[in-house]
Amino acid sequence: MKFIGQSAYKQSISITISKLNGEKAIRTATNLGIIDKTLNIQRDSDSLYIPLKRNPTKDETDILSQNVPEYKISTHDFSERRRTPQTLLECLEDELAPNLLASLPHSMDIVGDIAVVEIPNELEPHKNVIGKAILATHKNVGTVLAKASAVMGEFRIREFDLIAGKDKTTTVHKENGCKYFVDLAKAYFSPRLSNEHKRVADLTTEGETIVDLFAGIGPFAILIAKTHANSKAYALDSNADAIAFLRRNARLNRVENRVFPILGDAKNVAQEHLIGIADRVIMNLPEKAIEFVDAGCKTLKPKGGIIHFYCFISEQNPLEKNKADLINSIKKAGRKINRISSKLVRSTAPYQWQVAFDVEIH
Q: Residue 40's CB: how many other CB atoms inside 10 A?
């Protein structure tokens, strides 16, 4: 693995100059673009040795002579500049065979100081080496977790394997000017929805009442409350751990007077406490949101409002089918649609995407 190690030495053409005129020589050679930046400038008691890519041309020599007194072109031994690898591929190119390098993950999720990566089966024996390389190339990361399962169950959480760094799943994540306490093992959170959180917050107008039926740790509700001082958000979730983090996050972002966490099933809470109060409803539970359309419609004010509905589409479950199912469910709930539009949010798997439907209802 290409971490920082001892420098090798290499002989190169160089400018030899007195230390007194060294700064001027470096500046002139830099402007000419002839310094070899892979090598370190060397010094002794009297002189400076500046490594060059090649012998200067006559024009370059003339410019050097005009700007730098009493220099000479010679050869000298230079130490190679030690460099930290900038990418995962650079870090591992001496560790893994070419066919394995081709399978390296092209992206990862970074939540706070935790990196979450999906390790292909063929790289499983090398996952700890990959984890260490991620630490080496991402200085703000202190923990690397590998996905050990799909998102599972009612609470949409997954299992993880520690492959490098500190053994933890908790962190503080910064997004859109907000901070969130997160425990990846206890409550769902995806940094890939950052733009969607901001998009919905930007669409919200002052004074609105928002109902977030599946709020998780609160990234929709808290951002809306923080950017709209006269709005309030009722944030529901059936996961007690998520609601506990949501309360902490509301306090952390100083919106506890405008964000109201509610633990419970969205259908029951909507029916018992939230009928007819919402200007805007957020339904980000892509796997099951269609089952809660009636509850979302009931929370809307009699005059109507906006529903942000999320689902997954694929070749087997195309956009038009999801749209038709949503329209039928809204009609069954006794509501009428003024306008409906869709937006691709992100890719979630090969040939599968998360989509947002923005529905204006009256």
A: 16
Strands (E), the chain: 9-18, 42-43, 47-51, 72-79, 109-111, 114-117, 143-147, 160-165, 170-175, 178-183, 209-212, 232-237, 259-263, 280-283, 305-314, 337-349, 352-361
Nearest to 311 by CA among 271, 355, 258, 263: 355
Within 10 A of 304 (CB to CB), how many other CB atoms are there? Answer: 17
Distances, alpha carbon 200 to alpha carbons 193, 219, 298, 351, 358, in Å? 11, 11, 20, 25, 10
DSSP-derived pairing of the beta strands 352-361 and 337-349: antiparallel
Residue 140 and residue 128: Cα distance in Å, rounded?
18
Residue type, position 318, single letter = P
User: What amino acid occupies position 32?
Assistant: L
Q: What is the pLDDT of residues 315-344, one digit of tens each?
A: 889 999 999 999 999 999 999 999 999 999
- Is pTM beyond 0.85 here? no
Domains in the chain (CATH in brackets) are 9-79 (3.30.70.2580), 88-168 (3.30.300.110), 190-361 (3.40.50.150)
| Residue 57: predicted pLDDT | 93
d(CA 254, CA 236): 19
For residue 90, the surrounding DSSP H or E stretch is: helix 88-92
Residues of the chain with pLDDT under 70: 1-8, 82-85
- Extract the tokens encoding 358: 């923005």
pLDDT value of residue 69: 85
Q: What is the Cα 88 distance to its own chain's centre?
A: 17
Q: How far apart are CA 12 and CA 328, in angstroms?
A: 75
CB neighbour list of residue 64: distance below 8 Å, 6 or more residues apart: 15, 25, 28, 29, 32, 56, 71
